[in-house]
Amino acid sequence: MMKLKWTAFVVLAGCSLIMTPLGVAKDSSTTGDPERGQQLALQGDGSGAPCLACHGAMGEGNAAAAFPRIAGLNEDYLFRTMQAYQQGTRVNPAMSMNIDNFADADLRDLAAYFATLPVAEAGTEHSEVAPELLALGERLVTNGDWDAYIPPCASCHGPNNQGVDGNFPGLAGQHASYIKQQLLAWQQGQRRSDPLQLMEAVAKRLDAEQIDAVAAYLARQPAL
User: Fold this and answer.
1) The overall pTM is greater than 0.90
2) Of 4, 70, 186, 224, which has fewest CB within 10 angstroms of its CB?
3) Superfamily assignment of 131-219 in CATH?
4) CB 66 within 8 A of CB 14
5) Which residues are annotated as a binding site for heme c?
6) Whose CA is closest to 18, among 125, 98, 130, 93?
7) Confidence (pLDDT) at 9
8) Domain-by-domain residue ranges, the chain?
9) What is the mean pLDDT of the chain?
10) Quick check: 51 and 17 in contact, CB under 8 A?
11) In which band, very low, low, confident or very high, does the pLDDT at 124 lie, cut at 50, 70 and 90?
């Protein structure tokens, strides 16, 4: 899974854990062992729930509960996100409790497993969103609003917002509920996992309608 290099300006959301059927093959681009990661995902860390309890059998997440889709996301990003939950730089009681007994090697294997999972079609939970809201989302995601110092998402998250290496997660096809949740967390200073807090600065320039628009538009874009 090769990603293009891209100039970075801003960071967005993170993610959690997922599940899929048996029989995952080792991908030459992964550094962890996806087969072992699959076993760990099935059994959990010994004290918490297995990954599928929140993130679904195919890593599709849960839009209603704002649990993210992480199937096919970058391995390094997933690994660092799980580390952040363990270390407390990202706060989510369920995530921290469910992975607290995993060693770094376990997290690396889990991340490799999740990265190999196929990505489902873009979410449909926003099928009735007003065209005007989607048009606003498209403008912000694609062009930004430079008068308000809001850069386009792709300036960091790559072409078509597919993600860039381990630093910038793919946003296309992510659940709108999760994107909105994380934008609000950045806006309210509840996410501290980025040393520069670049995303916090951008999120604070978005109003409620703009957040809804960005989340709705990104959720409808295909994750390639």
Assistant:
1) no
2) 4
3) Cytochrome c-like domain (1.10.760.10)
4) no
5) 51, 54-55, 95, 153, 156-157, 199
6) 98
7) 33
8) 131-219
9) 85
10) yes
11) low
